[in-house]
Amino acid sequence: MRQCKQIIDLVSQQMESKLPWSIRMEVKIHLLMCKNCHRYAKQLSFMQSELNQLEKNLSSVSLATPAKKRIKQSFKLAINESSND
What we know:
Number of helices: 4
Radius of gyration: 22 Å
Structural class: mainly alpha
Strand content: under 5%
Number of strands: 0
Distance between the termini: 57 Å
Helix content: over 70%
């Protein structure tokens, strides 16, 4: 059996890519037995779903034209200052 630290790493990897079946089963069994790793996995899953939801909500937000102009001007000033250094 793997240690908790290894399971936590696998849980994180599992969110990014599909793990082999045998490793997924090992993680699942460990999470059934270890309440701390189970809690961590639930928290990680919750954070991922909330961040995905936030990303969806932010994609529908747009800035007002004056705000866009101020940001553009700030970038121009920053570029000019950095090129003078």
